[in-house]
Amino acid sequence: MKTSLNRAFGQRTASSARMAALCVAMLLAACGGGGGGNSAPPLATAFAPSAQLAHLCANPRPGTADRQGTVDQEKAYLRSFVDETYLWYRDVPAVNAASYTTPQAYFNVLKTNATTATGALVDQFHWSQTTQSWNDTSAGISEDYGILWADLVNTIPRNWVVAEVAPGSPAAVAGVKRGDRIISVDGVDFATSNTSAGVAILNEGLFPRTLAPHVLVFSDNLVTSLAAGTYSIPSVQNVKTLATANGTVGYFVFDTHIAKSEQELIAAINQLKTDQVSDLVIDMRYNGGGLLYIADGLASMIADPASTAGKAFETLIYNDKLGARSTTFPFYDLDSNGQLLPHLNLSRVTLLVTRDTASASESVINSLRGVGVTVHLMGSTTRGKPYGFVPQDNCGYTYFAIQFKGVNNAGFGDYADGFRPTCAAADDFNHGRGDPLETMLSTALHYRLTGACPAVASAPAGPSAQAFRGTPFEPNVPTVVQPGVRALRILTDRP
Q: Where is the PDZ domain positioned along the sequence (predicted)?
């Protein structure tokens, strides 16, 4: 049974609707050299330098670098940007820009159509969004209910439950909790409605485009009127210790790699260091990645500095036009303020993972394994995204095109099929995250104690969870379809 996860967003932008169908799955192709894949590349074409076309906008914004331009110039900029930086630039098809109404629609097709041996698209991580919404997300600010949905069944009779509720969000204030099952939305039965009008109401109520309230009925007779609201997302939560028969285990939830994560992670590591933990379990089951330097700092704080000194956290490999940019990042000793990072000095760590665990989160796994740290994974196979990008702003939109592949100190980066779990374990919505009885955490504790996977957790697992962040669905489609997914490995300068 497939389980997908879905974060309710309420961003009210034109690009949001266009992003609704954007789905991020696994990147399964080898990279390098600016090519790859099975399709015939287009004929070589000369494009004007993107720097000459940057900020020429059909609707320039006051107080910005925007200059008066045209939609055609915005499209030309995107074509040049992709040709210069895209990892598989040789495979981008020749398409008629005039066939696409907006620059964003045009950008969506400026990627390889190559498929892998299994028939999957090579690049499913190519999208754009408004720069304002990207900046808000990067700062940990959301405008939605604060609910991460899990679709246990997405065909009639549907069955969705709440996977996570963000602290301080409208849903948290209303008393919604993990495991609650959605019964109806604005009077429409969630499980059985199959008309276009009914599904349109479900879509708008679950992923509102305005701040208007919606009545949601949950299991246990919880009826609440919810309106999307703005709140700050904590990236690190539930830092604690677990007493076991063979030592103290540290635990915390880590859900996103954003700038403020650095100090939150440092505080968590310092607390666990004071508590003298002998092992660590990090709950990253919904962590789709983010800023690469945050992943670097976390990996550094887990390991003994003696095992990371002089070694590479990750080396980034670009296309052949940008080969000179290829850069090796060491394991950091200092935070972005120049202060020494704390260390737990561990030779092993356990991560709780699902298909939602992606990109920068996978860098933590790969980098530690590259220097000999044992990384046990409990849950299901991770996303598989050894690729990343530098967000590119132009005319009020931010564009994401794959630009590099990351490899660890041992030169390994071929995990586009994801990292398989040490022990398979289901996401247990009947228990809170951090509860020792929750299946994924209890599996980790059992494995630590016995060195073997528990019998139940060892059973073959179904397709793993998939995280979605997005916007309303097409109202004329009589099915509840998840919004867009993103898995992020973002290269930025440290503050």
A: 161-204
H/E stretch holding 298: helix 292-302
**Where on the phi/psi map is residue 20: left (φ > 0), alpha (ψ -120 to 50), or beta?**
alpha
Spacing of C-alpha 385 from chain mean position: 10
Between CA 187 and CA 484, with CA 199 as vertex, the angle to 5 degrees is 125
C-alpha dist (Å) from residue 267 to 339, 343, 400: 13, 11, 31
User: CA 390, CA 138: separation in Å to the nearest integer?
Assistant: 13
Within 10 A of 104 (CB to CB), how many other CB atoms are there? 21
Q: Report whether 244 contacts 445 (CB < 8 A).
A: yes
DSSP letter string, 141-189 = EEEE--EEEEEEE-SSSPEEEEEEE-TTSHHHHHT--TTPBEEEETTEE
Between the alpha carbon of residue 216 and those of residues 72, 391, 453, 474, the distances in Å are 44, 36, 39, 20
Q: What separation in angstroms does the CA of 485 have from each of 127, 188, 206, 310, 321?
A: 10, 26, 16, 36, 29
Of 257, 321, 329, 334, the residue nearest 295 (C-alpha): 257
Alpha helices by DSSP H, listed for 319-457, are 360-370, 439-450
pLDDT tens over the chain, length 495 residues: 445 444 332 332 333 322 222 222 222 222 333 333 333 445 557 899 999 999 999 999 999 999 999 999 999 999 999 999 999 999 999 999 999 999 999 999 999 998 766 676 778 789 899 999 888 877 767 788 999 999 899 889 999 999 999 999 999 999 999 999 999 999 999 999 999 999 999 999 999 888 899 999 999 899 999 999 988 888 999 999 999 999 999 999 999 999 999 999 999 999 999 999 999 999 999 999 999 999 999 999 999 999 999 999 999 999 999 988 889 999 999 999 999 999 999 999 999 999 999 999 999 999 999 999 999 999 999 988 899 988 999 999 999 999 999 999 999 998 888 899 999 999 999 999 999 999 999 999 999 999 999 986 543 333 333 434 333 233 333 334 344 445 555 666 666
Q: Which two tokens stand for residue 26?
A: 């696994």
Delineate the domains of the chain, giving CATH numbers in brackets.
138-232 (2.30.42.10), 236-385+409-450 (3.90.226.10)
Rounded to whole angstroms, the Cα distance separating 338 from 321 reads 34
Cα–Cα distance for residue pair 462/326, rounded to 1 Å? 38
Residue 373: both structure tokens together: 């740290």
Count other Cβ atoms within 10 Å, centred on residue 39. 13
Q: 247-254 and 236-244 as β-strands: parallel, antiparallel, unpaired?
A: antiparallel
